[in-house]
Amino acid sequence: MRTKHRRKWIFCLWGAVCALWLVSCGGEAAFPQPEKESPENTPQPEKESPENTPQPETSVRENPYEHTIFELLDGESAEEYLQDYGVEDVSPVCFYSLEGEPKLELYFDGETGRGCGLKYEETEAGADLLGFELEGYYKSAWASYWDYTNPYSTKIRYDDGAVHVDRVPYVLRQYNSILKFDESYEYDQDGRLCAYHLGGDVQAEDGNCEKAEFFTVFFSYWEEGSLREKVYKYNEEYFQHVAVGGERSDVYDERERLLYVEIEYDSDYYFIYEEDAMIPTAYLELHPRWIDFIRLEDKDYDNRVDIPRDGVEAFLRQVGLSPQDKFYEYQWRQETSAEVVWSYSDAVLTLYYDPERELGCGYLDYLGESLEDMSGFMFKGCVEIDCREKDPYGVYAEYNLSEHYRLDEVEIYYGMSPKELPQAYEHESQYICEYDDGRLMRVWMYGTGSANVRFFIYEGDSDVPSYCLNLVSGVVAGATLFKFIY
Q1: How far apart are the first and last CA of the chain?
Q2: Which residues pair with 432 in a beta bridge?
Q3: What is the pLDDT of residue 286?
């Protein structure tokens, strides 16, 4: 009974509260009444907002080249791109991958360097077509010359605050743990160089001696036998403090002209040639954030180059000569004495020369230095000396530099015969005269910031020289061939 009366009392109290609430609401219904359904009032499925609604995939994707110099193109926009630069009728300079796929197209005016380019960038989904502008050749107060790099050279380029190009990198010589350097070569069944290894003995943390390989250069060839590609691979443990850019690939055409260089994590370089020329007229440095288009000046054949022992034929092709043009070869065997300051025990001079074209080259091979390249040189022309008036042993050449570090002209001097050398160079230079059976073979003058070496060439048993090769090294380097007329 108590429970029933309590429920009745609660019910009455609840009714009184509801009545008071209705009065306070102005008599409006306290609960929603059922409405007649209409299209407007019929419950509709909730519409999702655009940001919450899954959108179907489209062909539009994020542009990964937004912060680069490249503009993402497609087939139609590429035609418009060329038209915008006015080069749609210009014959492009084209580069291809080793697999024959298009890699780069350059459309530009040869005189100014202005135009544009198309780059084919390989991706996981295929290839992206990229456009970039060529604003013209880079202008500098200093002329840029083609520094010939022998295709078979194994020297590497690295940057530790200053750019170095070394056979045995100086950065490796700074490791106290490297006890010894060793180099080795691998050849294929046709006798072609296929790999070069620079390694050595390294002291491990436990004090034991271990073998390590610092870098390797791989060579591959075209079907006819000329160099096709050269690839550098580095032991990153020993190059972590310098910038080598990662793996590097140098690609050549059938004539062994350098076409382009790809450097991992760094710029790519593309070289441009006119018709059958062996020396490029320009090169393009292409980086995702900048471009340098460099016009190369023609340089006389008087510069010095490094020649690996496996790269003599490539060097001759660059000059325009062949092994059949060998003109002279001679080997010096040095004796240890206070007067001889030549730093090598043995030296071999090999000279190539075509009299009809007056074109020549040569190299000095220091046999005791296995970790050094041979020292090569090139020259044009032959200077005739009338020995009825001039002493053949007294003629020598010096070289002048222009304001752009170019050999401007060769000056010929007379009167400096071996007998006069002590007086002429008593205070500023030293000299060495070397003989073979009484014939003067070489005069070496040094000590003025450069070295002047004269090599005398005899025919048969003649006691008088027929030619003299004058080599100058140091700040101003050059080569001159004299022909003596009696």
Answers
A1: 155
A2: 444
A3: 96
Tokens at residue 323, please?
A: 């092994």
Beta strands in 298-438 (DSSP E): 304-307, 326-333, 346-354, 359-365, 374-380, 383-386, 396-401, 407-413, 430-436
The DSSP secondary structure of 268-318, one letter per residue, reads: EEEEE--TT-SS-SEEEEEETTEEEEEEPBP--TT-EEEE-TT-HHHHHHH
Low-confidence residues of the chain: pLDDT under 70: 1-61, 75, 245, 299-303, 333-345, 369-370, 401-409, 415-430, 446-450, 475
Q: What is the pTM of this model?
A: 0.75
Q: Given this model, what pLDDT does residue 430 score? A: 67
Q: Give tens-digit pLDDT for 273-314.
A: 998 888 899 999 999 999 999 999 876 555 678 898 889 999
Measure the CA–CA gap between 45 and 28, rounded to whole angstroms: 30
For residues 256 and 259, what is the distance between their CA atoms, to the nearest angstrom? Answer: 9
d(CA 246, CA 250): 13
Which pLDDT belongs to residue 67?
A: 86
The residue behind tokens 């926009």 is 77
3-state secondary structure 146-180: CCCCCCCCCCEEEECCCEEEECCCHHHHCCCCEEE
Read off the tokens for 310: 């496996």
The span from the CA of 164 to the CA of 155, in Å, is 10
CA distances from 287 to 122, 233, 349 (A): 15, 21, 42
Percent of the chain with pLDDT over 90: 44
Strand ranges (E), 160-234: 163-166, 178-187, 193-203, 209-221, 227-234
Cα distance between residue 175 and residue 170, in whole Å: 9
Count other Cβ atoms within 10 Å, centred on residue 16: 10
| pLDDT at residue 425, rounded to an integer | 44
pLDDT in tens, 173-189: 889 999 999 999 999 99
Cα 411 versus chain centre, distance: 34
What stretches of 233-358 show up as alpha helix (H) in DSSP?
Answer: 312-319
**Separation CA 30–CA 181 (nearest Å):** 97
Tokens of 159: 């940057």
Per-residue pLDDT at 32 = 37
118 with 104: CB under 8 angstroms? yes
The pLDDT value given to residue 456:
94
Neighbours of 456 (CB within 10 A): 22
Domain boundaries defined on the chain: 71-135, 156-270, 304-485
